[in-house]
Amino acid sequence: MRFACVIALLVLGGCNRDDDFKPVYEVPEEVQPLIDAFIQEASLRGVSITITNLIVTYDDNPTSAVCGSCNSSAPPTDVQKTITLNSKAPCWIEPLELETLLFHELGHCVLGRSHLGDLLPNGDPKSIMIENNVGLYAPCLYPIDGEPCDNTFKRDYYLDELFNENTAVPDWAD
């Protein structure tokens, strides 16, 4: 009888512990408007998103070359999602670069997307999910031939593609 009780305890103890998972939502006040914008942009594209399982932290390591990271792009919601932003690396100068970085990381954490290295016909990245490029739709930092350039017109395409991988190639990319 004792043997049966021990076996029963082991079986019950080995059961799935998903019920014990308690999601945590801790986002710095200055980052919350970008999380809200991500949810709003998804909604504008017919995608309903609720984020209750996210921690955003800062890594102040000046020697790290990583601008940001998400601990998991796996779809299960029973894993605490954490985005780490490197506040010491010169990763974003323009506000749209920080938006691109955070939306990229939310693409991993919330949408379960992986990196995508495909290019459009004009050589631009096909997706915001490209690795190491936060300037996709930010104003150019270095003018071309002395002329400032403005890539903000590309923002709609990159956000459309973020929420729908089957988005058509934009006219500006042909």
CATH top level label: Alpha Beta
- Along the chain, the helix and strand elements come as HEHEEEHH
The domain tally reads: 1
Structural class: alpha/beta
Distance between the termini: 75 Å
Largest sheet: 4 strands, mixed
Proportion of beta-strand residues: 5-15%
Say what the CATH topology is. Collagenase (Catalytic Domain)
Strands in their spatial order, largest beta sheet: 1-2-4-3
Number of strands: 4
As a percent range, the share of helical residues equals 25-40%
Name of the CATH architecture: 3-Layer(aba) Sandwich
Give a summary of the structure in a few sentences.
The chain is of the alpha/beta class. The protein is 28% helix and 10% strand. The protein has a single domain, classed as Collagenase (Catalytic Domain) (3-Layer(aba) Sandwich), CATH 3.40.390.
Characterization of this structure:
With 174 residues, the chain is α/β, with parallel strands linked by helices. The chain has one domain: Collagenase (Catalytic Domain). Helix content is 28%, strand content 10%. The protein is built from four helices and four strands. It has a four-stranded mixed β-sheet with strand order 1-2-4-3, covered by helices on one side. Strand 1, helix 2 and strand 2 form a beta-alpha-beta unit. The protein is globular. The N terminus is likely disordered.
